[in-house]
Write a structure and sequence with these properties.
Length: 604
Amino acid sequence: MSHMEGLKANSSQFTLEGEPFRILGGSIHYFRVPRAYWEDRLLKMKACGLNTLTTYVPWNLHEPEKGVFNFQDQLDLKAFICLAADLGLWVILRPGPYICAEWDLGGLPSWLLQDENMQLRTTYPGFVTAVNSYFDKLIPLIRPLMFEEGGPIIAVQVENEYGSFAKDEKYMAFIKDCLQSRAINELLLTSDNWEGLRCGGAEGVLKTINLQRLSFGAIPYLADMQPQKPLMVMEYWSGWFDVWGDHHHVFHAEDMLAVITEILERGVSINLYMFHGGTSFGFMNGAMDVGTYKPQVSSYDYDAPLSEAGDYTPKYQLLRNLFSQYHIEPLPELPSVQERRAYQPVVILQHLSLWDSLHFTDKPYWSERPVNMENLPVNNNNGQSYGYTLYETTITSGGFLSSRNNIRDRALVFVERQSVGSLDYKTHEIALPDGKGERTLTILVENCGRVNYGKALDHQRKGLVGDIFLNHAPLKGFTIYCLDMKPSFIKRLSSGQWRPVSHQSSCPGFFQAKLFVDGPPRDTFIRLPGWGKGVVFINGQNLGRHWSIGPQQCLYLPGPWLKNGDNQITVFEEQRANEKILFAENPDHGRTTDVYKLPFCTLL
């Protein structure tokens, strides 16, 4: 046997370098963990007894504008993989192009949607061209990190859970060829849930399964499909994700341990999804839509063995004891936990109304009819990807305003800058007050997150996606403002006409406070009791969304994003503001529900 023989699946057991090998894996997404903490999280993975890291690659972050790539700083994929290798971990890479991951549009860039005929995850020419262009950039970057080149990557996944989508029988062969034609020679695999296994594969590619419980005879079913092949649970769901307005999902440690123990006793390889979930910072959360649209929260704690802030949980301790039985040598000592601080409450000092902030957006765009976010002529004509879009027009009467379900996803409506209500998927009509002469109608639309899973993926354009009607007549003549709230915009706001906070401080608007950090900055959690809904920025960085409906009741603020001295907190608030911002040492994920007691279909 050659010493340089990589991961093979030629018998009922994996081999690596010619020797039997059991994959004990865990998922950590570099893009959900502050770079300063990559090493901490990976060391804790190693100390739990895992030997393999798996990570997705989010196309939409790496190519935010067509042909403009970013693999630097927080997105330095190569550095993350090299760090894993330095710490003695193997790597399974899941480059997509679609990743799901409870991530906006499943990781696909929103500029793809500028093509009105676009068919995502198919061999539609526009999608094929974009994927080829992306892989032309990505693959040369990761190829030197493959096992055959002396690197840690022992396997590469071909797309992700295609069996649950399966719109094009030629598509998986196309993605497989994308990898192999660019000299990716390591073991290729696919992953699907039990129902997707039948039609999610590709010829000559190892199938793996995603699950949380051992019902349906899932593993024997996989074994029957691939006789004399190694078995692997590519995603063992250690918890579950949360959506706004629902409960926080938990999966009790003892229930989880019983299933994982049985999986290992059957000789099956495993990857914990997630080992450490982290945070969907900014506007990057996805959404579910299986009949009803439900956006996901910013926290991706996932009730994983390592918490959102990198804490050990009871799951971690139980897993460490279990995995230690699969190692000859003792496991490494546990790395210390990051210190946290509950900083003193800070008082809101200044306020800038939404209307006064419009001077700092890019030049507004005029259009006779509404234009969806993705087709606005902004960001070098790549459209608007995230955040809010403000549509303004003139009306000459009151009456009934009807969206006809053309709002994606939620809109605040104003007449002469006075709130008159909101529209969303459930509310399609509101009454506008009567008045004399011409008046300004404003519709502030929020993209709450694009669907990341299922058949609804093709219908994810945001903003106003069709006409809005007043008394059954379509409104015309819109001035459209892009409020994507990038760091550069938040920085520009500092030169705005901020006013001291008073009872007249209106919402929507921006509210500012200063957090003074004395000594080394520590992790903390921001709490906003008494506030309504909006977005929180720290020193210009978007921490994520807050919403009083829960379940999430706080936002994780990593210490490395703070500095010694003054730190600027900016809150964009839609509904109601409080005079203070609070801090806590520990998270509050809200009311809980046990995923193990829920029917599987209710999760999907």
